[in-house]
Amino acid sequence: MGLTPLSLTDLPHGAGAHATGSLEGMTADLDSAETSVSAVAPPRAKRTAYGKETWKEIAFLLSNLATTLVGFVYSVVSVLLGVGLAVTVVGLPLLALGLGGARLIGRSERGRARALLGVEIAEPSRLPKRGGFFGWLWGALKDPVAWRTQLYGLIRLPWGILTFVVSLVSLLVLWPVLPFLARGLASADRGMVRGLLSPSDELERRIAELESDRGVVVDTAAADLRRIERDLHDGAQARLVALAMGLGLAKEKLLHDPEAAAAMVDEAHGEVKLALQELRDLARGIHPAVLTDRGLGAALSSVSARCTVPVKVTVDLTERPAEAIEGIAYFTVSELLQNVSKHARARSASVDVWRTDDRLMLQVRDDGAGGARFDGGTGLAGLAERLGAVDGLLVLDSPEGGPTTVTAELPWRTRPKG
After folding, report:
1. 13 band by pLDDT with thresholds 50, 70 and 90
2. Rounded distance between C-alpha atoms, residue 254 and residue 241, angstroms
3. Max avg pLDDT among 272-281, 289-298, 336-345
4. Is 411 or 25 the better-scoring residue by pLDDT?
């Protein structure tokens, strides 16, 4: 006896409708699940075989021939001419100029790769400014960015010819494989551009920054020496000369007019006190003894006592930083408190010092009129440059009407033992 397959219409009354409803419900559930997944994670646009990216890569590969010919000829001529004439006066300057032109070629190639290959490469930092002709010459001759660009121009000629020929032939007769060839060749070009035309990571930038900071340190040290010499010449030295002359006159009058000699000695005694005070102030400006003996807390309390407004000093340090960092911190706070006295029109101020990881933090606040700016003639720009020379940072927050908050950040260096 055979079996007859049942259809939905052969089921008992209502069963077919129930089954149909279940199937429709399952379909609806699947549709809603698909919709929710699409809403959460929209499908990523797929790259088509003959899309815009492919045609950009083909344009890059076809333009390789002209650019590599120009780069190769420029590199050969500039290097050979400069090296060949190096024994003459004009050889090294010619080589330096050629390296400077190589930087321009590298910038053009980075722009071409950025526009056609989508390769985002940061521009190298500029050469640091050096004093005089010989400083410029030495900086240009040892520029790693320019030398890598020259190497890029020398080695790419065979590659440029190959990519041009393969791309052109594929464009004419090998359409099915053209997108795959273009992608593979363009990927190799991306690697060359990244490897030879990118900056030397952070090292090259860091070297340029340190060389610039060294110039700031040298200029600051020279200015400090000139200030010390001026203060000695115009202050303590002049008083000591006057003191010597006064004592000489008092010695001459000692026998003939003892009362006048005594008055002159008394005046000389006052001059000695003033000269000693000026020398103490000068020594404090070089490096205060209290900073060496008792540390940053006592030194900042001392300098805050000379401020024209009450200053609350809070130093939260479990150990003393290195002497150089401690000295920079002291003079930074000292200069900021001088600004409070001269310009802030404040009623009170506060100084906070603390350590955060490997940074020493300084903050000076006042309730004055505000409106301080780095270009306002208060010396903040110069202070920021000096802090930057030691990897420090100066942040100013001074709205009109106050309050003013200046935050300085210095690298923490542990004081050596012993």
Report:
1. very low
2. 20
3. 336-345
4. 411
What span, in angstroms and rounded, lies between the C-alpha atoms of 197 and 151? 10
User: Which residue, chain included where needed, has tokens 């030691």?
Assistant: 390
Question: Do the beta carbons of residue 374 and residue 384 sit within 8 Å?
Answer: yes
Q: What is the DSSP string of 66-92?
A: HHHHHHHHHHHHHHHHHHHTTTSTTHH
Which long-range contacts does 181-185 make (Cβ < 8 Å, 24+ apart)?
182/54, 182/57, 182/58, 182/61, 183/54, 183/57, 185/57, 185/61
Q: Please give the distance of CA 219 from its chain centroid, rounded to a whole number.
A: 20
* Cα–Cα distances in angstroms (integers) from residue 415 to residues 348, 363, 412, in the given order: 33, 22, 9
What are 407's strand-pairing partners?
363, 395
Inter-residue contact 243 to 268 (CB < 8 Å) = yes
CB atoms within 10 A of CB 229: 11
At 29, list the tokens.
């559930």
Nearest Cα to Cα of residue 195 among 227, 152, 249: 152
